Amino acid sequence: MxxxxxxxxxxxxxxxxxxxxxxRTPEQLxxxxxxxxxxxxxxxxxxxxxxxxxxxxxxxSRQVRGRLAESASLNEVLTYTGQAxxxxxMLRLRTVPDLFxxxxxxxxxxxxxxxxxxxxxxxERGWRVTLHGRKLYWLPRTLTKSAAVRxxxxxxxxxxxxxxxxxxxxxxxxENADLGIHPRHGDLFASGWSAPHVTPxxxxxxxxxxxxxxxxxxxxxxxxxxxxxxxxxxIHPLRRPQSAPGSANRNGRQIERVVAHPQQRxxxxxxxxxGDPESEALRDAAGHDSGDEPGQVPQ
Length: 299
Prior knowledge:
Layout: H1 3-15, E1 18-21, H2 26-29, E2 41-44, E3 49-52, E4 55-56, H3 58-68, H4 74-82, E5 90-96, E6 100-105, H5 112-123, E7 127-132, E8 135-140, H6 145-156, E9 162-164, H7 171-175, E10 179-182, H8 187-191, E11 198-200, H9 206-230, H10 250-253, H11 277-286, E12 295-296
Parallel strand pairs: 1-2, 9-10, 10-11
Antiparallel strand pairs: 1-12, 2-3, 3-4, 5-6, 6-8, 7-8
Helix pairs in contact: 1-9
């Protein structure tokens, strides 16, 4: 992250709720350090875990368990995936307890027919398979980043959501935001994916992360100034008027969230492969997902 990006993040967190959103584990998320005031909310495990003031929110965890009951069990998926564990292209199989699993693979050696068969098998059981870099993710369809963000949006009464991400694992987050940005690098940009309200940056690398923060800070400050005029000089950054309870649409569409660039987020944010865990985690907080993403929810 550039020095300029660090200052932009501090400015942003002064007028909006900034939230890291990632597919990474809680341990990996714990390495993320965002500039600015303490950030109250964070999402790990692709939306499976919501942290509030550093503690796992039990209420959200109960909701997640209920949703996961609609799909095949993790044990069933592990049994199926484990049948290929002896293959030379499968290097390691890991799990995020009770939520999902992923395999580290030798991508050039991964058989296309096996991947197609696995994808179809998973879809029939309520799961999705995502190949990102050298990681093959098995995720329940009901386990999404956008759902966790919406939970925060509803709780704080946020008005808009801004999101950034550079990975296919960030798509649902970007689709459910009011405005999304993705850097002009990473697998999401390379795939050609697009959405009407999501735009790519002109910059690449750390400068893309800086450009995203510039944009989000400007939007958040304009919103705060507008709120100042509507509330007798009192600023309610990115928060809906108290007279309209329940009208807020979580982090997905009515909150301003700078969440998402999962992994390269601040320095760039979605999920990346390779590199040291700390730099990857920092990118998550910025807006990229190396398999996850950080985010931001306006206050």
